[in-house]
Amino acid sequence: MSGFDYGNARLRALKSKLLSQRDLDALAESGSLQGLIAAMTKTAYRKPIEAALTRTSGLDCVSESLHHDLLGGLARLREFYDGQAGQQVALVFRRYDIHNLKAILRGLNRNAAAAEILSTLIPVGDLGSAVLTELVQSPDPRAAIDTLAILGSDFAEPFLKLRSAHPGASTVEMELALDHWYYQETLAILQNSHGDQKVLLSALQYEADLTNILTLLRFVHQPVERKLLQEWMSINEFASLLVGPGRLSFTTLDQAANQNTVEAALEVLSGTLYQTALRTGAEQYAKSALLSEIEKQLRRSQLRWLSGQIYRDPLGIGVLLGYLALKTNEINNIRWIANSINLGIKADAIREGLEYPP
Fold this sequence. Notes:
Elements: H1 5-15, H2 21-28, H3 33-40, H4 46-53, H5 58-79, H6 83-109, H7 114-118, H8 129-136, H9 141-150, H10 156-165, H11 171-191, H12 198-221, H13 224-233, H14 250-257, H15 262-268, H16 275-288, H17 291-312, H18 318-342, H19 347-352
Helix pairs in contact: 1-18, 4-5, 5-18, 6-11, 9-10, 10-11, 11-12, 12-14, 12-17, 14-15, 16-17, 17-18
């Protein structure tokens, strides 16, 4: 048996419990938050909903139940794998460390309460609950970074390098330095690892490309942000914002970023792996002038690619990547439904905003 056999079998069983299009439509038609909560008790979310109801109600109940369901599920997933498979899974879960560190930096920067910051964290990566709890109690971002360094955490490296090169760097600059380090470090680990890392490498490159495409489109769509970039981050070259690299070269991305219109930037990216999604997004953008239409198509393309790995890589990391993508999409759908119901949006409009699983 490969190191993935047991875990992948468990994930296939969990995948069968994910909500179908019919299930999501039924939730969208709940009519009220109370109705939504009642409907969710008839799904795999029954236990987290019932637990949340002992502490809260309404929108808070839905949000808390989703958070605890995700947190508990991810913690169990890590236990399914060991050995070389477990090492690959640990790399995948590093994304949650990045999420947590960004949330802490932002929270400390705006003087948020420790409990508020903790409620947004997903402690399933290398940084455990004890470390994260210590970090959120820091008086400011600099102190949190000092704590990371004292603990000997690898995650302190990009922050300390930034501090040396640019004392007094903003939180935005810290996040960018963290992103650069994360992609470069993970790519280096994958390229120097034994075994087949192709699927995980492709997934990381896909995410880097989407991050870069969305960043460049934002700057083309709002030229004034180029000036703000210089003022906020002392960055003159757009290329300094790029992460990865993914499959798209920095030269191509920089060329697209220097176009005067979104349409011209998309033309530079034609002929790439993402051309179909970009073409569809461009058609919607032409009607609405909303960049979110392009992002929606790119994320949909990514979801299809990741979920497809369940079948293309049945004995490897692809099953985990696909399941995580589908589970995250499901939670996003339920959040959309809950927030929409809370705002009084009709069921038909709610369904239009859902991203049904492939």
